[in-house]
Amino acid sequence: MKKPTINLLLTLLFFVGILGCGGGQSKIDEIKAKTQKAPSDPMAEWQSNKGIGPVKSLILPSEMDPELIASGRQIFESMCSACHKIDKKFIGPSPKDILTRRTPEWTMNMILNPSEMVQKDPIAKQLLIEANGSPMANQNLSEEDARAVLEYFRSL
Amino acid sequence: MKKVINRTSVVISVLLAMIIVGCSPNSGSNGALSSSVAERVYVAPGEQDEYYAFLSGGYSGNLTVYGLPSGRMFKEIPVFSQFPTSGYGYSEETKPMFETSHGFVPWDDAHHPDISQTNGELDGRWIFINGNNTPRIARISLSTFETEEIIEVPNSAGNHSSSFVTENTEYVVAGTRFSVPVPQRDMPIDEYKGNFKGALSFISVDPEHGHMDIKFQIIMPGFNYDLSHPGRGKSHGWMFFSTYNTEEANSLQEVNSSQNDKDFIAAINWKVIEEYVNNGGGTKMPAEYAHNVYDESTHMATSTMKKEVLTVNPIDIPGAIYFLPTPKSPHGCDVDPSGEYIIGSGKLSADLTVHSFDKMIAAIEAEKFDGDAYGIPILNYEDVLAGTVRSGGLGPLHTEFDGKGNAYTTFFISSEVVKWELGTWEVLDRQPTYYSVGHLMIPGGNSRKPFGKYVVAMNKITKDRYLPVGPEMEHSAQIYDISGDKMELLYDFPTHGEPHYAAGIPAELLAPKAKKFYKLEDNKHPYAVTTPNEVTIERKGNEVHISMATIRSHFTPDNIEGIKVGDKVYFHITNQEQDFDVPHGFAMIGQNSSELLIMPGQTKSSVWEPKKVGVWPFYCTDFCSALHQEMQGYIRVSPRNSSIALKWSLDGDELN
Question: What is the pTM assigned to this prediction?
């Protein structure tokens, strides 16, 4: 006769336990987020995707900076060219015309924060699958270096 | 029904308790749970230890890094032994680290690690350790945790009273255990007495780079110099060495070296000797000893053979060296944090002898001597004695300090750690060890500022502590909590090789400055490939140099043709990664060497001399990514007289 009461108590306590530990609302949000359906094609929404990382907003000047291009080229050759070729998809995609497919912020965040990007960002996740799971290496570029590399990409 | 209700309330209480515990991660130090011994050594998954402990590996030749209180081993740092895991001592860059005046010596018996100090406190820059067998001192960086320098010690044998640093790391000291003819010569062994000598070496340490240089050697009488420790605080400038075999026996020492009731602790005022040699004192003696230095920017070691050493004869420097009579073949020679007490552990005794630095100075000033040994004044035992610890144990070996006025001494024969009070010499506590303890270590225990929370006892005998694995067992260690009045045994863990001494340091002093990777732009290796465009293969006669790049998950190049039987092929591999913990390995089939494990930004080289025609694969040995299994390549080996040209490529693109 008492059994249902015990069960009820246990259930209640269980929830008190969960909610008590982590702040209830965010847990629910987390569960919601997990169960929501992903958009069918992440690439289609590239224009609104700035990626995840230190670069939140970047407005590129219309004129390109030749000095920045030169330094970006040098950094690219030393840090990136083992996996990225200009003229073809190699281990990873070619950076040519990247800004017709990705935002400047996304591009820099992918360089600066690849581990988190391939875990969380829908485009980066998709690219990881396309690269057979070969991860984008974090080459520990500074934000300045990544900006130079982006300028070099613009010049291609 | 009552029963049901009771059970309900029990369930509720338990659940409530779980919720409370689960919610506050710091609850461990309070309440009923704090009595759990397991919890005090439990470092939860993802959490980190409070201290680093560096345990000598004894006959493994290496140094192992542990966490305290967990007893988890993090790394084996190769020092005096070749280490195929990383290629240390096999790679072309690190082979020179093993050069000595006896040629390539790929092993040693590593004994007493000591961390560099500034103002008598641990500064966490370097750790030194001695090779006992072919006398050498090594310096290891505590940023890269790699061996950076090894200096051989001439005129020495059984380099045991080593490698202890002075208060500002002015010197790392190396004393001989076995006296020998100095200089070495062909002579009858039974003419030992009066003819053999014991060299005590003061090796200066460059304050900026840590580079070592033998500043002077004191050529002492032919005793056995067993252990040493530096003065600190008021006794800074002095170094104390225990001696045995003052009988100068040359055979059956187990009996013949135990005849004298007292041997000596040698007190050496190195500041006086330093001044003497700075003013031109001492004699330059021809010698031969290797000095091997690893350069972090070229990732290469070089070996230089030195030809001369500055020696000092004790009788030429009156006022610098005195003998303190100490009973029963003293082993450990330890100095308390204040610098006042010098503890001699007469290993054949039950008691500890404590000398007073102040009394020693007073006796010296009053010139109260009891004769001399080979011209070195002997002080009166009673004049320098501060006290005797009547321990009740047997076979005292080593003493460490907690910085709260207590000392902890190991007793080998009675298998225990004894806690006693400095000044009253009263025994406060004793705890058994399992079994036959040698050294013990309190982090900072050999400094002005010990961190007296834990002591680790390192035992010589393991027996039944772990599951048996044949006749040889790894040695056991025990960790005790010493924060309270009584020591509490917390945990028991196996160690590697045979730890002699160890050195510990709070994690917060080292972890933040541990290197994560080498910067490619700083790589000055002559065969470094800092961009994949630089990969190249060069033939000079039958010598072929392959400069290769690696990144997850391919080698550039990965197809190589034009190698011939009889060639001597050098692989120079540069890891292009610039991220923490992404090494790549390199192994070539049939190579008469070890693999290479190349850290991000680093270049390492190995030699392969192909003996058979065919197409031979190489691969990455470190599981580096999801496509690690794909990380491989081929080398075509043609007959000796073949005319096939050198050719190298990646994905069909020829790179030459």
Answer: 0.89
